[in-house]
Amino acid sequence: MKTKLTLVGLLAVASITVTLLALSAGGINPAAAEGETGQIDLDASHDGQEIEVAAGTLLVITLESNPTTGFGWQLSEPIDEGLIALIESRYQPCENAEQGTVGAGGSEVWTFETLATGVATISMEYSRPWEGGEKAVQTFEITVIIN
What's the pTM value of the predicted model, to 2 decimals? Predict the structure, then answer.
């Protein structure tokens, strides 16, 4: 009985080790490892990257922003609404700022849902949206491969 339990324990450890090695070597897409659907959190460090996800996955993009300067994130190109839907866009004040602090920055959080198989691009720019305002001071773009 003790030998049987030891063998089961060794098999479990070996299985976990192989999975971790595959993830660290890039053999398994971390987005796909979450299952059929889920949520992928992205930020400025993902700019210019390709991500591979399943249809039904939420993509939550968090980018630094300070609306008191007149700047804000906006889509620089329309998204393919057959492949990706914009669910929500909201401002989130900095957690360290005191309530009501004037001029304190924070983040904009954009939530998208992948809808169908295909390849789509999410392109954004940090701009002053009014006419004559500064455009594309910062940009963010990801290519989404939806399986």
Answer: 0.71
Residue 109 CB partners (closer than 8 Å, separation 6+):
60, 61, 62, 88, 89, 90, 91, 92
Q: DSSP readout, 41-99?
A: EEEGGGTT-EEEE-TT-EEEEEEEE-GGGT-EEEESS---TTTEEEEEEEEEE-TTSPT
DSSP string, 104-141: --EEEEEEEEE-SSEEEEEEEEEE--STT----SEEEE
Q: Distance (Å, rounded) from C-alpha 40 to C-alpha 60?
A: 6
DSSP-derived secondary structure letter, 29:
-
Find, among 120, 132, 116, the residue nearest to 78 by Cα: 120
DSSP H or E stretch at residue 35: none
Q: What is the pLDDT of residues 33-76, one digit of tens each?
A: 444 569 999 999 999 999 999 999 999 999 999 998 899 999 99
- Residue 90, token pair as written in the block: 């909201």
- What does residue 15 show for φ and ψ, rounded to 5 degrees? -65, -45
